Amino acid sequence: MAETTVASKMVTFIITRQDKPESQAYSETFKVPYRPNMNVISALMEIQRNPVTAEGKKTTPVVWESNCLEEVCGACSMVINGKPRQACSALIDQLEQPIRLEPMRTFPVVRDLVIDRERMFSALKKVKAWIPIDGTYDLGPGPRMAESKRQWAYELSKCMTCGVCLESCPNVNERNSFIGPAAISQVRLFNAHPTGEMNKEERLEALMEDGGIEGCGNSQNCVRSCPKGIPLTTSIAAMNRDTTKQLFKKWLTV
């Protein structure tokens, strides 16, 4: 009897769709057969195999992004029941029905649940979130990072550029150029690296430009929503301190 009940159970999805970047958004409802331990991605795969609405209308398959399916790549970010999160780790048994899926609106929508994260990647380019080692491969081993520093730096390195922190931040929107908490935290990470520290001032200067760290309103939504538990507000506070020091340093050297 229990097996029959599970087999006949259906899960209802209301999905916000958009055919093109310039198209109007609309909603479609789907019903997917329930399976124990299924997540949102597995449900989207069912809809892709059989793109028929709850009303029996044949439609186009819903488009979304995914890759690792284990909350590492950050590709499957979307708004699930009003909360930005990863679809791969969103278990059906833990979600209230009907389950509503929407694209993250901080970023331009490409199609359906697929978004363009260019704003986030441009922010990382602006702060030079990398270790410049081109041409130094023949210099031998680099300096070692102290274990006490490595432990907290590792937590910052878990960022998977999913964009959830930007989606939840009220200060990241189309009306301003705020780079968001992820890029600020990456400045802290790379400035802590013994080799990355060589470009420390350059990264801090980038944070002091328009759209930089002054755009943070301290809502703390980012740290509450980060799927990897990264201490984003701690990084923002640390970078506030470092940019202030950098500003005084510039004044004293003028």
Automatic annotation (TrEMBL):
The keyword Cell inner membrane does not apply. Its EC number is 1.3.5.1. Its cofactor is [2Fe-2S] cluster; [3Fe-4S] cluster; [4Fe-4S] cluster. It comes from the Bacteria. The keyword Cytoplasm does not apply. Residues 150-178 form the 4Fe-4S ferredoxin-type domain. Keywords: 2Fe-2S, 3Fe-4S, 4Fe-4S, Iron, Iron-sulfur, Metal-binding, Oxidoreductase, Tricarboxylic acid cycle. One of its GO terms (molecular function) is 3 iron, 4 sulfur cluster binding. GO terms for biological process: respiratory electron transport chain; tricarboxylic acid cycle. Belongs to the succinate dehydrogenase/fumarate reductase iron-sulfur protein family. NCBIfam families: dhsB, PRK08640.1. This is succinate dehydrogenase.
